[in-house]
# Entry
Amino acid sequence: MSKYLKLFFVAFSISFIGALPIGTLNANVANYALKGNFSGATQFGLAAIIVEVVLVRLALFLLDKLGHLQKLFRYLSAFMCVVIFILAYKTLEAAFHMRSFQDDLPFVGMQPFYSGLVLSLLNPLHLPFWLGWTAVLKGREVLASKAGDYNVYIAAIGTGTLLAFILYGVAGNYLMDALKAQHNLINWILGCTLLLTGLVLAYKLIAKKVSLGGVSQA
# Structure
């Protein structure tokens, strides 16, 4: 498997699986499709994907630029690590208490494209989720700090989210009902994934601090 193909497959899989749990974004896509408003579903999904890939590009920029400012980068990484742990806790708590998905969809009266932009911007998972995964993939040398790698990475993420939205648009009510029935299991999976991502970031931060401490003492 070529390097770019492997990168595309990994990023696509992360994006697709991450977009499957029921949330306001995919639920809105399904809602538009169920009402026969496929234009609205397309506009909403396109806007949400645009915001996501822009935030991914921001994550790449931050990891590249702040990597040269080690102290500031460590502070940002520590902050993102805390955010991921908080999100993991909230998701696992919801799974433990078996809370069901809420059907109330915000901004339903807004023009679909602008609604997609707003809701995607308000999604607290985008930036910490992709900062965490980007750091993990760079640490495993799946993703390199090159323009070609970044283009493939962003294209794969957009494609993964797009396929998940298409599934919600096409499968509509059936997929929503099926995922609602398994919502508690999905919460456990998503919570454990976030927890694992946070632990990996925490390990990298601690390992780097220990390494720097050993060098300074030497």
Observations:
- The chain is about 80% helix and 0% strand.
